[in-house]
Amino acid sequence: MATFPPFAPNGSEDIRHYLARFSAFISTKDVVKPLTPPPLAEGAAEDVVTAHAVSVADHATALARYYICRKRWLIAVMGKDTYAVLDGLCGEQTPEDKTCNVSEALMRARFRPARNKNDMRAKFTKRVQQQGERVAHFADALRDLVQYCEYGTFLDQALQTQFINNIPSDKIQDKIIEGAADFQLQVERAERYEAFYSKQPAQGEPVHWVGKTGKPRPQRKQFSKPNPPEGIPKHFSIQTASTATSCW
Q1: pTM of the predicted model as reported, rounded to 2 decimal places
Q2: Is the dihedral of CA 221, 227, 233, 234 positive or negative?
């Protein structure tokens, strides 16, 4: 039976990484966060509205059950030393009395590695998208740095500004320069344009059109238009019984 290692309070692993690995571990034990039901469309029929309400209620029940199971698993695997620290952070209550989100928030605040705010801000503002680096990876790198910058309520705005200003692609910048409701939406928009532009041929590269069969058609040779013979107008046409074909 697979087991999960305890967290070492004085170890080198970041608590965020530990909790991320923990989430992956409990998913193998069928402890999976339920998906949120899709929003209800406007003007939906009464039976659809009723079914959606039931779906929302079922989701709330499943979500509560998920967090209860997650908390129990976390208490079971975190180790005695980590449990002792968490118990002290809970005051008169115990870790069992706290919700899963509160317990994990206490652990993140207590075990987060100490970093100098000014040093991390300097690293954050100097971070640019590297050659060959996808925008999603660049966004993840910014998220890792900004958590130590203590920007407070300006955190999302700082992420958006740094993200836009340090993407080397002018095309993607132009598409996301207006900003978004939040940083995550901005990254998703940039990913869509990155995928779109990656499929476009490079400048100077020949374009091969695809026919109805789905197979590329051979590129047609381009010929320069010849000058008409002397004495013949440039727009002279040869008239036939059925068509009129322009020579030039």
Answers
A1: 0.51
A2: positive
